[in-house]
Amino acid sequence: MRRHWLLVGACGWVLLILMFASKFINFSFRIPGGAPFPLNTFSDFAGRTDMFVWTMPSVTTKLPSVQWPDKGASQPYILSSVSPSVVEPIDWQSVNEKRLELLSTVCRNSSLWNLTHTNVRKFVLDRIFVCDKHKILFCQTPKVGNTQWKKVLIVLNGKFSTVEAIPENLVHDHERNGLPRLSSMTDTEIHQRLNSYFKFFIVRDPFERLISAFKDKFVKNPRFEPWYKHDIAPAIIRKYRKSHHDDSESVGLQFEDFVRYLGDKPGRQHLDRQFGDHIIHWLTYAELCAPCDISYNVVGHHETLELDAPYILKAAGIADLVSYPNIPPGITRYNRTKVELYFTGITQRDVRRLYAHYQGDFSLFDYQRPGFLLD
User: Fold this and answer.
1) What sign does the dihedral 77-325-289-228 (CA atoms) show?
2) Is there a contact between 175 and 165 (Cβ–Cβ < 8 Å)?
3) Which residues make beta-bridge pairs with 128?
4) For residue 15, how far is the Cα from the chain centroid?
5) Residue 199 phi/psi, 5° resolution?
6) Which of 233, 280, 227 is nearest to 255 (CA)?
7) Kindly report the CA angle at 87 between 81 and 91, in degrees rounded to 5?
8) What CA–CA distance (Å, rounded) separates 199 from 201?
């Protein structure tokens, strides 16, 4: 009988210890075989049953824990079932290491070599902005929030004290914004900086980036760059619009025309030479930044910029000197509905030709093949 009561007492103590520990320890589990999924919208998450992250209640307020997927997805963060609006990486350094590891692996893939490698020539060096004071190189990839990163570098170079104080029309005025390009330096200076400076750039889902470029340059054109509508659009229409009427050009460039032009890599080279540097808004990341030929320290993702931006500042050693401008919650997330809408009515043949040209970007940066458009 005494042994019985001793056993009961011991069980009671174990139970008390477990109850106490539960206030400080989060428990999570994953159903075996569950596939990772991208962070899109709450409605996408709500329909999934193959992944759960469960957090026990706690006395103190804590962000829910997350798990890193076994296999990379388009956005490497997982929503908690307790608080679907909150995302938190386990360890941003490991996230970046996984991105760079994948980048290195794809760069060695001989079947994608022509889509992932480019010579580090003046065109690429023109895209890279320099902050000598803090030993930073930033490669510009248009339509992924580059304006804000330029503001960060302008502040670091001492031109302005805060990003909010910088006039919008100054950011892209490269004669006045105080941001030197790497191409402006001697060969020795270029090699020294490439070998020793902190280097980073930002990427975005390739097709969503093309939609952004189309809207910004051929529909809204907020910076009043008339050459896109008056020179580039008519040239694309004349060569790639299927049916021509008397007023065909007055209708303006349609996304279907744009897709057909982009997918015709060999045939569009003559036009691209005419367009000059204006084509940077739809060139591949490989063509812009040579990620397989320059050893970058960080590759940020537009879709998770709310989390990436502060960590990039920290990794570069400038977190105490400048802050990234506020990002409205959810604004950078991938929007599949928008992509489907823009590609409605475009032939599968044209979409496949477009994907073939941008396949290197999809593979290098772990963006999922858009099977909903291709199959």
Assistant:
1) positive
2) no
3) 139
4) 47
5) -120, 135
6) 233
7) 120
8) 7
pTM summary value: 0.75
Can you tell me which residue has the tokens 């209640």? 57
Residues 297, 284: Cα–Cα separation, whole Å: 19
CA atoms of 70 and 66, how far apart (whole Å): 13
Running DSSP on this structure, what letter comes out for residue 79? Answer: -
Q: Which of 141, 164, 156 is nearest to 301 (CA)?
A: 141
pLDDT in tens, 199-219: 999 999 999 999 999 999 999
Torsion of Cα atoms, 316 then 320 then 326 then 332, to 10°: 20
Q: Which residues contact 11 (CB under 8 A, 6 or more apart)?
A: none
Question: And the tokens for 51?
Answer: 């992944």
Tell me, what DSSP letter sits at residue 248? Answer: T
pLDDT digits (tens, 9 = 90+) for 32-57: 333 333 333 323 323 333 322 222 23
Q: Give me the phi and psi of 182, to 5 degrees please.
A: -65, -30
Q: In whole angstroms, what is the distance from residue 36 CA to residue 38 CA?
A: 7
Instruction: Output the CA torsion sign for 104, 110, 116, 120.
Output: positive
Backbone angles phi, psi at 99, to 5 degrees: -65, -45
